[in-house]
Amino acid sequence: MGSDFNRRDLIKRAVAVGLVAAPAAGFLSACASGGGDNESSAKGKKTKDNPFAVANGAGLDVVIFKGGYGDDYARAFEKLYEKKYKGKTSHLGTQDITGKLQPRFNTGSPPDVIDDSGAKQIKLDVLHKNGQLADLTPLLDAPYIDDPSKKVRDVLQPGTIETGSFDGKMYSLSYVYTVWGLWYSGKLFKDKGYTPPKTWSDFMALCKEIKKDGTAPFCHQGKYPYYINILVMDLIAKTGGLEYVKRIDSLDPTVWGEGAAKSSIEAVYELVDKGYLLPGTNGMTHIESQTAWNEYKAAFIPSGSWLENEQLKSTPQDFDMKFLPVPTLDGAKLPFEAIRAGAGEPFIVPEKAKNKAGGLEFLRIMLSKEASGKFAQAANSLTVLKDGVGSDVKLRPGTQSTVEVLKAAGTNTFNYNYPNTASEFDTAVQNASGELMAKRIKPAEWLKRVKAAAEKAKKG
User: Fold this and answer.
1) Counting CB atoms within 10 angstroms of each CB, which of 26, 108, 236, 367 has the fewest?
2) Contact 166/421 with Cβ under 8 angstroms?
3) In what helix (H) or strand (E) does residue 406 lie, and over which residues does it extend?
4) What's the CA angle centered on 11, arms 5 and 15, to 5 degrees?
5) Among 414, 416, 408, which residue's Cα sits nearest to residue 198?
6) pLDDT tens digit string along 259-313?
7) Which range is the signal sequence, renumbered to this chain (predicted)?
8) How far apart are CA 9 and CA 4, in angstroms?
């Protein structure tokens, strides 16, 4: 996700994707027929230190989604590229990926590297179908900068390759290792004597207590239902287990008629039915709701681990941001400590990039310890590089909290891939959840809509 999308989304990111799905598909159809020979004519010498044969002095065109992680980290990476290859980099930080890049794709002159995230992300599955993505297998097989005896694929966190793959090949590098779940203020909980809940019944009991104390128990980024689906889909996963997650990713429509989905969506609806939502939260943007949360107007909010960096300006110094795994329903197949964790924030190299070799090398530089450490310091988040943050890097409370819950989770992690492989289905689920939280539909109708969306997506 990021500022508007999941990485992570958006992050991810992935959030309001229904607003951009149709235009994205339309312009990419045009992109597929865009002409022009964009391969850079200059070639360097292929060596172990220059596996893609980047030409000395070759410039690099970089476009970064300027969301929750900002874009300062990318400027640091660009300096590393410039130092090695003596080529100038051009940099654009934007939240309008589709708007800024549509004309360039249409004329057959896309950038060399794109952080393809945000609410106006270009859908990865659509890009893949139109042949717009470079195969990143050469990156995976290239030497790891800090230890050339290893390949890049050997130093990535589990699930990184799968998250960016279509038909068995990786086409996007999901760079940020994100955790998703609930967030609360350590200061508020300490001042009020609240205990972070581990079960759903304890969670609801605490919500009742919080409301009596004059605070809204829960808020969410209502304009972008991607966020409430963090709670919805995590609860379903923990209730149904890993096989259930696989069935959802495979677009099996029968899961939506079974107990795990039914009990989970009914549990989430309780927050609405019992009046535990912050008034107005259903119409708020991510920044509006998160700022209200920072102002102690609500106790819990769902988000990914980009939240801390995104809210730096509005978070009080003593707020003590904390991460909480989604509490479990009775009979859950995964323990409370289990969390959704995985690679997000997709970086791509367009197939028609002028300096495709430089784009691949930029991604390789990103996966060095130096770059990974720079990202942690600038963006307050972890990367997909194993042990990518040294002990010399001081983390903020929220980020340190995610490190701790990752250790506690151990092997009990899960993630969904359907937002990347079935974006229309993802949009339908988000839309249904937005309607549910606004109390315009009830759980039975939510299940009906999601099942129909899965059936439609399954048919192709």
Assistant:
1) 26
2) yes
3) helix 397-409
4) 25
5) 408
6) 999 999 999 999 999 999 999 999 999 999 999 999 999 999 999 998 998 999 9
7) 1-32
8) 8
Six-digit token string for 161: 């390759």
| Domain's final residue, options 404, 427, 455 | 404
Write the CATH number for 279.
Answer: 3.40.190.10
Task: Locate 433 and state its tokens.
Answer: 């959840």
Type of residue found at 10: L
Pairwise CA distance, residues 48 & 195, whole Å: 54
Residues 153 and 291 in one domain: no
If DSSP codes are grouped into helix, strand and coil, which group holds residue 157?
coil
Residue 410 lies in a domain: no
Task: Give me Rg for the CA atoms of the chain.
Answer: 22
The helix or strand, by DSSP H or E, that contains position 248, with its residue range, turns out to be: helix 242-249
Please name the residues in contact with 379: beta carbons below 8 A apart, sequence gap of 6 or more: 68, 69, 70, 72, 73, 176, 306, 309
Give SS3 for 371: helix
Three-state DSSP class for residue 101 = helix
Half-sphere exposure of 236 (CA within 13 A, CB side): 26
Q: Are residues 212 and 334 in the same domain?
A: yes
Averaged pLDDT score across all residues of the chain? 89
Q: How many residues does the chain have?
A: 460
